[in-house]
Amino acid sequence: MTIQVMVDGLVRDATPDELADIKSRVVATGKSPVPKQISSGQGREALYNVGLFANVQPAINAIEDPDTKWRVQNAWDYRPTWERQSPFVEMMAGILGLSEEQADQLFTSAAGL
Description:
This protein has six helices and four strands, in the order ββαβαααβαα. By secondary structure, it is α+β, with helices and mostly antiparallel strands. It has a two-stranded antiparallel ribbon with strand order 1-2.
């Protein structure tokens, strides 16, 4: 199995040093590290796989503040990558009812797509 990493918005195979670092973190924590960034395509597919994709647009439509609504819609429609700690991801996780752990799991599974 090839492990891929995302660097500056580009997905590539991990280098031997990056693989060693990932493996050491998995051994130390007993779980895979949560990726800091995924592509929007990976995120959308992960949401679809867990049955949440159809909930996103209605959630965006329900945002009352026009400025916030525009920013979230823009991120959903046009950002090529999603940062795990971004306001967009945090807001969408909250709107979709995801806990921090569930959002981390979604990012981790998305990275494998």
